[in-house]
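lol forgot to send this yesterday, sorry. struct tokens for the thing we talked abt
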């Protein structure tokens, strides 16, 4: 069911606290949704399920239109239960405004990586 599962579009290296005092190097799964409709609770839970299936506890969601209200509530619920989810608006990411609470991206050239990922995403979803 393409477009409904909110699956993992890629991985990115991060530093994460994950409830610890020490920061840990890890990987976060990311999902990019460039559509007019908001990222839904169904898509969010599909993304979380895929993260758990890959043994990842951190996820970054990049959207053009934001999270639906029920998806925002689910992010809070998952973040309170051993997950670290972060939502970024595409416009903020492209302007360099990256704020993900306990998550620090470890990508030197994240802009080039993001553009390459967006190109691949676009080509795979024409």
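and heres what i got for the seq, position by position
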């Amino acid at each position: 069911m393409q477009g409904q599962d909110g699956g993992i579009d890629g991985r990115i290296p991060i530093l994460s606290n994950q409830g610890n005092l020490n920061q840990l190097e890890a990987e976060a799964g990311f999902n990019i949704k460039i559509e007019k409709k908001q990222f839904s609770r169904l898509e969010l839970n599909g993304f979380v399920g895929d993260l758990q299936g890959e043994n990842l506890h951190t996820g970054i969601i990049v959207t053009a239109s934001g999270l639906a209200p029920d998806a925002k509530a689910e992010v809070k619920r998952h973040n309170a239960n051993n997950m670290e989810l972060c939502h970024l608006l595409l416009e903020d990411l492209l302007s360099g405004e990256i704020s993900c609470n306990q998550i620090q991206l470890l990508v030197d050239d994240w802009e080039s990586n993001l553009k390459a990922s967006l190109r691949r995403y676009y080509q795979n979803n024409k």
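The chain has one domain: 10-124. anyway ping me if u want another try
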